[in-house]
Amino acid sequence: MSDVEESGYEEPPPRRKAYEDDEEDDEEEEDAEEEQPGKKKRRQKKDPMARFLDIEAEVSDEEEEEEDEEDFVNDPFIETAETGAEDDGRHHARLDKRRELEEDEKSPEQIAREFSERYNTRVPSRFTGDMNEIPQRLLMPSVHDASLWQIRVKPGREREIVFSLMRKSLDLEYTAKPLSIISAFQRDSLPGMIYVEARSSQQVQHACNGLVGVYPSRGIHLVPIDEMASLLMIKKQDLAVTPGSWVRIRRGKYQGDLAQVVDITENGDEVGLRYVPRIDLNPRDDMDLGGSKKRKKTTTTNASARPPQRLFNYEEVVKVFGRNTVSKRGQVFVFLGDSYKDGFMEKDFKLNSIVLEDVNPTLDEITMFSDGGGGLEDGMVDLSIIAEASRKAALSVLQPGDHIEVFEGEQAGVHGIVEEIAGDVLTITAVGVDLEGQKIDLPARSVRKRFKPGDHVKVMAGKNADETGLVVSVSENVVTFLSDMSMQEVSVFSKDLREAAEVGNGTNIVGDYELHDLVQLDLQTVGVIFKTERDSFRVLDQNGQTRLVHPHQISMRPRLEPCHRHRFRRDRIKDTFGIVKDTNGGVARVELNTGNKVISIEKAKIHRKLPNGKSEPVEGPGATWGRNNNFNNMGPPSSMPNRTPNPYASGGRTPGWGGGGGRTPGWGGGGRTPNPYAGGSGQTPAWNASSRTPNPHAFGGGQTPAWNASSKTPNPYAAGGQTPAWNTSSRTPNPYAPTPALGGGEAGWATPGRSWGGDSTWNAPTPASAPTPASAPTPGVGVTPASTWVPTQPSLGGFAAPTPGMIPSTPYDMDQDTNDAYDIPLDWLLDASLSTYQSTLRVRIQGTRLDNYLEGKYESLEVHVLAASPAASNFDQTALVKMDSTSEERTVLMKYLVPVTPSMQDEAAVVLTGPRKGEKVKIRQRPDASSLLELVVVESEKEYGGAFWECQKDWMCAVW
Amino acid sequence: MSDPVSAIIPQSKSRHLRSCLLCSLIQTSNDFRSIGCPNCEEILQLKDNPDRILSCTTASFDGVIAVIDPETSWVARWQRTAKYARGMYAVRVKGRVPEDVEAELESRGIKYRPRDQSDQD
Hints:
The complex is a heterodimer of chains A (about 950) and B (about 120).
Chain A: H1 4-10, H2 17-22, H3 32-44, H4 53-59, H5 62-74, H6 76-86, H7 89-104, H8 108-120, E1 147-153, H9 158-171, E2 183-186, E3 193-198, H10 201-208, E4 214-223, H11 225-233, E5 246-249, E6 258-264, E7 270-275, H12 291-299, H13 314-321, E8 326-329, E9 332-335, E10 338-341, E11 344-350, E12 354-355, H14 363-373, H15 383-397, E13 403-406, E14 415-422, E15 425-431, E16 439-443, E17 447-449, E18 456-459, E19 468-475, E20 478-483, E21 489-493, E22 497-499, E23 509-510, E24 513-514, E25 518-520, E26 526-532, E27 537-541, E28 546-549, H16 562-573, E29 578-584, E30 587-592, E31 598-602, E32 607-609, E33 615-617, H17 640-643, H18 655-659, H19 665-668, H20 685-689, H21 706-712, H22 726-731, H23 738-743, H24 750-758, H25 772-775, H26 785-792, H27 806-814, E34 842-845, H28 848-851, E35 862-868, E36 878-883, E37 889-893, E38 897-899, E39 908-911, E40 920-923, E41 935-940, E42 948-952, E43 956-958
Antiparallel strand pairs in A: 1-3, 1-4, 2-3, 5-6, 5-12, 6-7, 7-11, 8-9, 9-10, 10-11, 13-14, 13-17, 14-15, 15-16, 18-19, 18-22, 19-20, 20-21, 23-24, 25-26, 26-27, 27-28, 29-30, 30-31, 32-33, 34-35, 34-38, 35-36, 36-37, 39-40, 39-43, 40-41, 41-42
Chain B: E1 17-20, E2 26-28, H1 29-35, H2 41-44, H3 50-56, E3 57-58, E4 61-67, H4 74-78, E5 87-93, H5 99-107
Antiparallel strand pairs in B: 1-2, 1-3, 4-5
């Protein structure tokens, strides 16, 4: 029996014969006579709890039925009498008792109705369709029905457990502890849970006791009454198989192959498929037909060793297998039991042996069907099915900024640019003669990306992913482009394409090999990969020949001494200028000024170009720039002089770094000491690091500099209402300035302030930073900060400060109005340091009126950011926001979102820029609303050290 | 064995579970052959008729219901199996009964409700 289904699958043509052949069982002798009385007897024992309608219905005998059949329908009451008489006494009595009980509570009408209902359906084996007339909605559950309870079960065992519950209920039915659950069910689309119908959760609990894989401890949840019906109405994704649709074969030699549905059996169990055969035209045991063929067949089911897909060719097959292996019946060839039509194999498959979902036929595969067949009429290849698939995906691939065209609906033919996406509705700005500039809402499924010949595109998905090229033709949703890499024409669906400027692969890695690898091709030949293509390389071998090589043709990669490559690389670009774009550990990414190329290079191998024409290492001995570890934030070093109109810059040198030259240990040291923040973390090591870590400045005796302490502790200077935090000192006429000087030991605090000023991370070009004297005395240098004054003076680039006390005062006066407003980048929301706060940021929509974006109706509204994630670089960034006032949700171009500046004391905010970027702070001073550039005292949250400091107001964004 | 009006409860692991297209009862094809469909035998005549079993039952169904007390069960009522034998039923059965059965139902004035949830009213 167990091979019934199998044989139906393996031996193809007898679509429905399998059952006939196999189901020859011995149970057939069991005849009706034997069964009927048995049934009858058992029925009389029926569960007392059950309604008696069916009991009566099934009790009556065949003979009786024959004569009375007509009457039953017409006159139920007569029949009642008859059947009643035939019941045995015990049963009858019970029924009577029960009927009495029930009828006591019922109105005569009700009783009458029940009677007619009952006896209309009572013919034993006659199928009546029961309540089929009742509309489904009248069957909705009521409060009188038992409840449904959801229970967690082990995923994969849902069905088994439902069966177990059934069996358990039957087994325990007449025991002392019967189960009282009414039903239980499971849905394939709700894995890991079953539903039990019962009056109480205790009953469910009781029923589940002892069943393996049921987890009542995870809760037995009541299903709300209005959700009960939907549990039974869930439709699995309707896998409609229609002739012409595409499927994949799940198992066997043809596993994964695309097939087309030719026909479907009446009950939908089996489908006839047409697919490209894989006939082995080079059979190993030649000409060995019959039995041995079969054996061979089983061994070749290994998908990896299967013969290639090839249309059936009578001549070829006959040549290899002999003329009598193939017979022809009309249009169909029969070969080894399989039938072939128009070159395709046609075979019936069980539904469960084919894959209906996510078929995603590729263009190549479909072409095989349309080209190869010849006899296949055009109508059979239904591109609409693939189109359908692409449409489903359309939503996920559209982005604001995409050029689209509408291909269906009343707006068909309209071109436009995606403005925003809300659910599956797109708003586009139409482009074209009469609609120009109009905003149109459209369903996402009726648009497709639009490309025109000449566009440069990149493939985002599919097997051609990462190919780039120039569009040569567009037909419907198929775009053909000339690949930059292979110079071949490639056709892809427009949904998988994106306009892109870049050329070539995203990576230069194919398989295990990378561009410029030295590879061994065979024992005699080695070569260098000089070009990578999608799945192959161009290799220049030692004989000067170039060849196209696939990864598997490479036997190994000769091991190079690492230094070889480095030298090579360094030599190549030596004396080249560039801009550091990013750093990661000891490696910097440098954009070369020539060649517009970004390379990775060890930091040790690059020098900073100083304005005086000299250069110095960015790291290690000789590096002076205290802040050199986060130069990624600073932009090109060459721009530095512009930033600091430095009153002290005698000789054109900013004392900050020009004078240092590695001699000012105070900040120069930062680059030399192990600094946890090195590597461009965006943190400023000078003070922040030192406040937490072994002090980088402490090499002169291990003393903690005074300033450092102050950043950590309730600030001794705060008493005056001003914080001597680093930026305070640099900007405000600092009444405390003398203090450090006088105080000696505390002089150091000015240092950080100073080195901050010199830093370009933020846009405040505070000349105040110039109080280099302060910086010079960096405590680290000497044994005591006080004593460092003198020794370090010379390092100030010639600036002689007779008394430290007066030095700070002068510059401080000057920089009052040099504060710069924070120029908010368009994608500030996406800044990594804000990511944890993104959803709490108070954000305002601004600037929309000017551009008439969304008609400006959201202007000035404050919003909650629900989601914002980076779009591809060449698209406008958008964020999903919720209007605070109306709770409306929509996407908004990120460039219209600006941070709300904190305006109240004790308000929480996040620092958007500057060295303390990303810190969460509380405003500790009542801001004066007049100026955005105002400095307010803030207190960092605990996790950021709880320090009090001053922050420019527009550097912060309030949080909800 | 415990209850007479129960259909045969098949092994859940059986690979040959099939659901009756008319009443959605689940049995193995063997059971359908030996006893037919306890609910619809009169009209479908599945017993000893493998061809008929193949056309009137299907292996493509979704969701399994253990109907323990059909008469009180809302689930059974919703599924319109409240008057049927206790047993395992499918929630959703793919396919329609053969045309002759549909014709027969029509001649008896019975509204045919396919169990593929194609018609919801």
